[in-house]
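Recall that a protein's primary structure is simply its ordered list of amino acids. Everything else, from secondary elements to tertiary packing, is in principle encoded there. The following example makes that idea concrete.
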Amino acid sequence: MGLKNISAASLAGRIVVNQRGESRVIQISVNDTDPQMAMKLTNKVAEVLKKKIIEIMQIENVQIIDKAELQPNPVSPNKRMNYIIGVILGLIAGMGIILLIIYFDNTVKTPEDVKKHLNLPVIGTIPSFKFYKNGI
């Protein structure tokens, strides 16, 4: 099955076994980069678990309800959701940076800013000029 080069700890980290609610149904999930390997591993774990339950608990009516099948789309990563989350976080981070820049901006832009930041009277202002292409 191709598991000879995989350590037991690595294998245990890929397999999740849960009981569904209050029932006696057990759900086995395997997370692997290779979908074929995940399917084979899930089915093998189910077979071994079935044999061990029969052996340990001495119950004869243990059965596998559904065998693992290949999914047409990978369960993870969900690229669309990752893109959406990335865009939202990018917008939030961008707005946060802009707000910080505005908050910490202490440049003088208006005569009121001179009075506010420097506590000095305004002697005069320089008007802004519009320059035209033809020089007038």
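The chain has a mean pLDDT of 85. The chain has two domains: 1-75, 79-118.
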